[in-house]
Q: What sequence folds into this?
């Protein structure tokens, strides 16, 4: 079977077109693969550990109350286990009702009580009339450090939730100068640490307790 010149030209043009399209598609895939490779290399570079620069406050390693590394980053945010808990999952019954939260994102129960958002009953027994009003007495606890603000201990908020015998005399001896408290002991669960860092607000919120500026002594 003989092809005319016109058919040969058409066949040649069709072959050329197929060859061009195949080259273009191959080139596109090659460019896509190259771009993917470059992106992977770039992401690997980003994932590389950042060198800590002590002079840069954004690269300071923060420690939690147990002395473990808590994170690297913004020094204006409290980087601690408590902060991570506050930004984490909460039961829907608590997180969805608009209860006030502290700067850690944890429920601020003291504020809830002061604003009378809740009014828990003293007893389930209606005939129980043994409730005592909260004790209106603040105690000044002198901090041992020269540059650490003193502590004002509010009996009112504590006796709102607890009976006196919960703390006295097993945890705190009710006499001035008889409780040689230390922050190390508190962090390890003694004295204030029996509740705080567990069911009460975290110890990392220092200014909630150390709220009385120490007088300058010359």
A:
């Amino acid at each position: 079977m003989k092809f005319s010149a016109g058919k040969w030209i058409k066949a040649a043009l069709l072959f050329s077109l197929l060859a061009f399209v195949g080259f273009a598609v191959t080139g596109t895939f090659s460019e896509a693969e190259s771009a993917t490779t470059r992106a992977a290399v770039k992401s690997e570079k980003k994932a590389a550990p950042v060198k800590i620069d002590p002079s840069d406050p954004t690269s300071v390693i923060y420690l939690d109350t147990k002395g473990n590394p808590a994170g690297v980053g913004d020094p204006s945010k409290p980087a601690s286990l408590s902060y991570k808990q506050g930004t984490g999952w909460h039961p829907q019954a608590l997180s969805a009702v608009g209860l006030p939260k502290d700067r850690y994102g944890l429920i601020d129960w003291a504020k809830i009580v002061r604003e009378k958002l809740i009014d828990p009953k003293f007893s389930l027994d209606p005939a129980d009339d043994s409730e005592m009003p909260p004790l209106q007495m603040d105690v000044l606890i002198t901090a041992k450090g020269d540059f650490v603000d003193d502590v004002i201990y509010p009996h009112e908020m504590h006796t709102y939730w607890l009976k006196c015998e919960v703390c006295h005399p097993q945890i705190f001896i009710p006499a001035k100068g008889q409780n040689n408290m230390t922050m190390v002991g508190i962090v390890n669960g003694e004295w204030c640490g029996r509740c705080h860092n567990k069911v009460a607000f975290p110890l990392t919120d220092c200014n909630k307790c150390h709220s009385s500026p120490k007088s300058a002594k010359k």
